[in-house]
């Protein structure tokens, strides 16, 4: 048995990494493509520099044209103007192509990491469904926003701005110093102001977006109950309140952007006027000529295009940082299941044979959901012989579903041992175990597709005959044959086109189609009426014949047909035996059975 996540886990994140700033961690995700982003920065600098140089050359050409320069000089200027115009467009296109390609590839890798983490941690109970959707979509895509708009433009500004200041310093030192001061104000002071003003609203925006998504999903999923209890108006009011909060935050963000744009325009204007004033004085005292004055003023004006994107980028950093924190809230969730990968690579652990009969042995199983939580299972011992049917029964909260989650590798035990076919399942990858152990949950999910596609989840390559055989074993074939479209019948969202009993039988057919050796039936009749429940239990037990079957339930329906029964209370086995033996003995089982 393995313990908590270790550094051999490819998704392991140590505590030091978790404490790092989310923005730095998001940028670090792009490290494998740092060369591409560096190329993007160079191309961006070429595009921006071409734009600045284009205006500078144009200023020189217009200013010197009145002096009737040589045709060679004018030709060179014309060719340079055309070349800079072409290079600006081509460089900008290439920069967008390279940076977006690298950013989208990084985003794809982030999505894969998120999905892998979800598959390893099963954290759906830790996040509300709407909030999880927001984290998977909006917060994950914030990585793209940061890499495209928050990483390349500042670096391009440093490279191009420095080169432009150096050029103007050569032309006229005071003009270069003035431009350096203006660029620092517009490209550093204004973005810092925008970042400070948007820090709080940015955090609230990401949270407000998640709240709105959560409320909307809750409203849609719970619409029937909300309408039945007359609570829809109150729920709609909650949606409107969440939307109003997001609108308020967006307005404040827009105000910050407007203030930043105004400050940028003011600094640009003052710097250009300053350059013109200094240039005129310099022309009067003979320090520079009129041509240099034109180049100085127009180049100064063009230079502020270099830092124009930065305030908007800085204003988004608060929201991006919060989105990153929410994203890493998923990625940093500790895995619920682990495998000793070094032992697996060494080949020291036997592989579970999916074709052999599989007995199940549970020894001293202990599970709890937190270090300060009580034991959900406290020293459970039970055995399912190959091909036998064993029931685990007990009141709600006894730990029955926790046992199912251990067998299906949804979490690791905190103590004890669980063997399938003589192999400790905690030594094997989850997918390998689930190729041998399958199950029917108490609330099976039915996708809004056809019966055929819902069945093929278990075995994508199954042909129609195999699908019908699974339906016959689950005693659902007759009902499907009566449907006009048969296997192509659409079942509706969450299987609303099917009855409760049919949904359970469909889940059973899906489990049978997977051809497991161990079948776990977790409260399969929890939401059914008594008549339907008796029929479904009969069908389940009949279809499970030949499997090593664990039936987890809270009532005694059909338990006279199982080979052995274990009664669990407060995480411990308090009784075991056959149906007749337990009815004859004093205890919880008899008290439930004679009611």
Please explain how this structure is put together:
The structure is a single chain. The protein has 595 residues and is α/β, with parallel strands linked by helices. The chain folds into two domains: 15-331, ABC transporter transmembrane region fold; 360-593, Rossmann fold. The chain is 61% helix and 9% strand. It has 20 helices and ten strands. The protein has a six-stranded mixed β-sheet with strand order 6-7-8-3-9-10, sandwiched between helices. Strands 2-1-4-5 form a four-stranded antiparallel β-sheet, with helices on one face. Strand 9 and strand 10 (572-577) form a beta hairpin. Helix 5 (129-171) packs antiparallel against helix 10 (310-331). Residues 1-11 and 341-348 have low confidence and may be disordered.
Quick structural summary:
The chain has 595 residues and is α/β, with parallel strands linked by helices. 61% of the residues lie in helices and 9% in strands.
């Amino acid at each position: 048995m393995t313990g908590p996540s270790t550094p051999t886990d490819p998704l392991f994140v140590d505590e030091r990494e978790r404490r790092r700033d989310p923005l730095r961690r998001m940028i670090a995700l792009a490290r494998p493509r740092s060369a591409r982003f560096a190329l993007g920065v160079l191309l961006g600098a070429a595009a921006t520099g071409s734009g600045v140089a284009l205006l500078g050359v144009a200023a020189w050409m217009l200013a010197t044209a009145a002096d009737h320069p040589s045709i060679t000089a004018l030709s060179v200027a014309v060719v340079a103007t055309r070349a800079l115009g072409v290079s600006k467009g081509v460089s900008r296109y290439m920069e967008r192509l390279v940076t977006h390609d690298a950013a989208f590839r990084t985003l794809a890798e982030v999505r894969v990491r998120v999905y892998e983490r979800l598959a390893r941690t099963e954290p759906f109970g830790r996040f509300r469904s709407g909030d999880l959707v927001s984290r998977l979509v909006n917060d994950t895509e914030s990585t793209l926003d940061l890499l495209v708009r928050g990483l390349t433009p500042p670096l391009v500004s440093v490279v191009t701005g420095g080169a432009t200041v150096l050029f103007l310093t050569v032309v006229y030192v005071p003009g270069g110093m003035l431009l350096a001061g203006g660029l620092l104000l517009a490209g550093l002071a204004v973005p810092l102001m925008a970042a400070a003003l948007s820090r709080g609203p940015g955090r609230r925006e990401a949270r407000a977006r998640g709240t709105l998504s959560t409320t909307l999903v809750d409203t849609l999923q719970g619409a029937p109950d909300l309408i039945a209890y007359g609570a829809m108006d109150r729920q709609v009011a909650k949606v409107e309140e969440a939307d109003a909060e997001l609108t308020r935050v967006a307005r404040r963000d827009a105000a910050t952007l407007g203030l930043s744009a105004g400050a940028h325009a003011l600094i640009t204007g003052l710097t250009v006027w300053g350059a013109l004033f200094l240039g005129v004085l310099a022309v009067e005292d003979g320090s520079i000529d009129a041509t240099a004055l034109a180049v100085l003023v127009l180049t100064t004006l063009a230079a502020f295009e270099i830092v124009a994107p930065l305030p908007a980028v800085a204003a988004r950093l608060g929201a991006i940082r919060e989105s990153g924190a929410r994203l890493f809230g998923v990625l940093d969730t500790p895995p619920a299941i682990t495998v000793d990968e070094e032992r697996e690579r060494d080949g020291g652990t036997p592989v579970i044979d999916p074709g052999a009969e599989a007995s199940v042995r549970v020894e001293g199983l202990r599970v709890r959901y937190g270090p300060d939580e009580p034991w959900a299972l406290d020293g459970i011992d039970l055995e399912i012989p190959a091909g036998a049917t064993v029931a685990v029964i007990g009141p709600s909260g006894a730990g029955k579903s926790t046992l199912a989650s251990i067998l299906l590798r949804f979490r690791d035990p905190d103590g004890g041992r669980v063997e399938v076919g003589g192999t400790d399942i905690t030594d094997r990858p989850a997918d390998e175990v689930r190729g041998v152990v399958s199950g029917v949950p108490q609330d099976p999910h039915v996708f809004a597709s056809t019966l055929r596609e819902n069945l093929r989840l278990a075995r994508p390559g199954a042909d129609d005959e195999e699908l019908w055989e699974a339906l016959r074993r689950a005693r659902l074939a007759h009902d499907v044959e009566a449907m006009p479209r048969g296997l192509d019948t659409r079942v509706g969202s969450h299987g609303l086109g099917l009855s409760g009993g049919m949904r359970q039988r469909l889940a059973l057919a899906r489990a049978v189609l997977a051809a497991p050796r161990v079948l776990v039936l977790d409260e399969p009749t929890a939401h059914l009426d008594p008549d339907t429940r008796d029929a479904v239990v009969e069908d389940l037990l009949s279809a499970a014949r030949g499997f090593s079957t664990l039936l987890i339930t809270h009532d005694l329906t059909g338990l006279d047909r199982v080979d052995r029964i274990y009664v669990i209370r407060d995480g411990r086995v308090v009784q075991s035996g056959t149906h007749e033996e337990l009815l004859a003995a004093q205890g919880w089982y008899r008290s439930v059975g004679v009611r």
